[in-house]
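During the first year of the project, the team set up a workflow for recording each protein of interest as an amino acid sequence followed immediately by a discrete structure-token representation. This format lets reviewers and collaborators read both layers of information side by side without switching files. As required by the reporting guidelines, we include two representative entries from the current panel. The first entry is reproduced here exactly as it appears in our internal archive.
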Amino acid sequence: MASTTTSIRQLRKALRQAADPLKAPAMRAYMKSQMPYHGVPAPLLRNVFRSVFADVEFGSAGQWRGQVLDLWRNARYREERYGALHLAGHRLALPFQTPVAMRLYEELIVSGAWWDYVDDIASHRVGPILRAYPAPMRRRMLAWSRSPNLWKRRTSIICQLGSKADTDLGLLYACIEPSLEAQEFFLRKAIGWALRQYAWTDPAEVRRYVRRNHDRLSPLSRREALKNIGAVAARAAGARIPTGRV
């Protein structure tokens, strides 16, 4: 079992070895990041994380949370914070993915305050906890949907991206409602994205929702919501067309 200090030291060494200084400035500019990048491309970054955290162990939820926060709070490069997110979702941390973990994720969301962090946490951490613990998480997401913090509001809107037919549609609409007329790009985009994703499950319902709220939804949200509906219809039609093969 590696200590937190050892894991951080190993991660920093591995990232330095994998770094591409020529790519780092463009990556930093694209993400508008105050924190510098090493310039490690995503596929290689995943390999680094798998290697560095191969022997990690968590004796308790508190120990897991402490390791994630230690890496997150002491990060010098953005890839180190991506490492913290990887550690948060480690397979050995599955028993800790409960509403109690929301204290951790709230800190990461609020202090990270940018889409690359927030979208990963919302869809891959908050969403599964919501599906496993719907009652307490529903209350929390409803509260977050009215938060003055736009990233908590965005999280409440997009946390069901992976829910498909299990989407709590009433919760989705309730979380969208406080932001329907918001001017913030990241909220407008989130609304459109959430609706677009649900359209793969029920395109007719998304059409109805957009029609009912046409004047309240921003053009961006409407456009995003309806973007894939033609593809959904084509896929459904294709599934009904005989191929002629036996």
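The second entry, processed by the same pipeline in the following quarter, appears below.
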Amino acid sequence: MAEVTDEEIVDIANNFLLNSPPGEFMEVVTDVRALLPNESLINESAPRTFREYNTEQMVVVDAPGGKGHKVLVTKYGEVADGDYLDPKGHQVFHYDHIKQEVVGSPRAVSGSEMDNSLEPLRAAFEKEAFTYTAEHYPHGACTVYGKDGKIILCISSARFNPHNFWNGRWRSVWTYHSGELVGHFKIVVHYYEDGNVQLNTDTTQTVKIQAGNPDQTATAALKAISTTEQAFQESLDTSYRTMGDTTFKALRRALPITRNRIEWNKIKNYKIGGQMGK
């Protein structure tokens, strides 16, 4: 069997890191380092891997400069390596992906970093989106971008409960252009008490809306987004309730003929246990 090269080891390690459940990234980093023959192998690739993970997860941070709102770290808002747009605050901040925090002072947005021709529509979407997110995702945040002739609305909401062995994150990205909304949803939930169960959902939906002036368009868009996301979440809830009554029951081990669970700590008291012991 051919020996695994260092490059292959790094690829495998980074794949583990990029597939870390929400809220458990640093724990996976620690575990992966412990498994490597030389933990320094991933030092060179770590900045890229951390950056890819954080932007894909659309992590939520407090907008710097005392703006009083939250902003997402996303690939849609990346204007330079580690520099991210805060459209609501009309500023750019630097996010240290290794330290997992905003560092330094923000700077004002330059002329090329926000499309002024889209600003009335973007601002209208932002107003409606902040109201919607506060109502439906109290643990999350949203950021609205205007770029390449499109409005891009990102929503990210996470709940971390390691004491009860579960973590989860909802992500949705809505792109609006010429009366059409395209929504991409991702949900990851990890439950790991006495086991390892994950829900991973990735889907795309398209909705047509009636466009008007910026306020009318934004109102219609967020109404459609609310209806679509609620229907999607309800369909998931129905599917998993049905699965609990059918699929999971089919996977369970049937009880023995006595109709009682075996107490494995007392197995020697059973006849079959005595026979096995002999």
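For the second entry, the following points were noted during internal review. Residues 116-247 form a domain with the Aspartate Aminotransferase, domain 1 fold (CATH 3.90.1150.210). The CA atoms of residues 82 and 139 lie 24 Å apart. Both points are flagged for discussion at the upcoming steering committee meeting.
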